[in-house]
Every structure is written in C-alpha cells, then in structure tokens.
Amino acid sequence: MSTENPMLNSVKEAFAPVTEAFKNFQNMEVPEAAREFVKKQAETAKERTADFYAGSEKATDAIESAVAGSVSEAAKISRNIQQALYQDAEAFFAGIDKLASAKSLNEAVQIQSDLLRTRGETLVSRAKASSEYLSKLVTESAKTAQDNFAKVYNKTA
Is the dihedral of CA 98, 102, 107, 113 positive or negative? Predict the structure, then answer.
C-alpha cells in the first residue's frame, strides 16, 4: 500500500508557484531608502507633537495660576490628559520607527503585535489609575460638602 496520494500531490504541484511566491513575499526586504524616509517623516511629526505639547503645558500653567480650588483639579485632569496624549503620540512615532526598521513582512507583523500588546497594557493601567483618582476625588468632594453642610447647619442651630 503506497502512502503517496496522487490527488494530494497534484494539488501541491498546482499550488507550488503560489506557495513559493508567498514565501518570497514574506521575506521580501524593504529598501533602506524607504525605511529612512519613514523614519525622517516620523521624527518631524514627533518634533511637532513635542512643540504642541509644550504649548499646551504653558496654556495649562496660565489657567492654573489664574484660578484655584476646584478649577485647579480640572487643570490637573487636563494636564494628565495632555500627558497621556503626548505619551500616546510618542509611542505611536516610536512604533512607526520600529516598523520602518522591519526588514521583512514577518518582522513587521511581530513588531505590530508587540506594539498592540503594549498599547493594551497601557490602556488598562490608565483606566485603573483614572478609576482610583476619580474615586478619591468623589470621596474628598463628598467630605468637603459634608463639612460645609455641617458648618451651615451648626450656624443655624
């Protein structure tokens, strides 16, 4: 009894050019000039993002110094959002730089997968920190409101 299957062999032979082309495509090298162009564009965009972030920091400082109290909490939240957006932009540009360095499709897919995993971890961390901060803020606000109500009640009693 022969272990060869003539039907299977003919299918393999028929698809051999496609299989070979796919293997070659996965290992196709990205030209150095293309990688350098992407890196240069990403660096320019990164610099512009840093300039924008610096400007938004100055605006937040001006608002923060002009007012106090609960507005300073709003400014703190605004500052944290600005910081998160800036970190996201930096991570994005670092990811583009890494992807531009990929010499094959397989390497690019692995880099993208790593970037997505890291992004997910960052989002979970931020969600946890935001939840903790909001809980603390609500607790402190409730305590302040309770203290203020007690002061008003004691004055009228």
Answer: positive
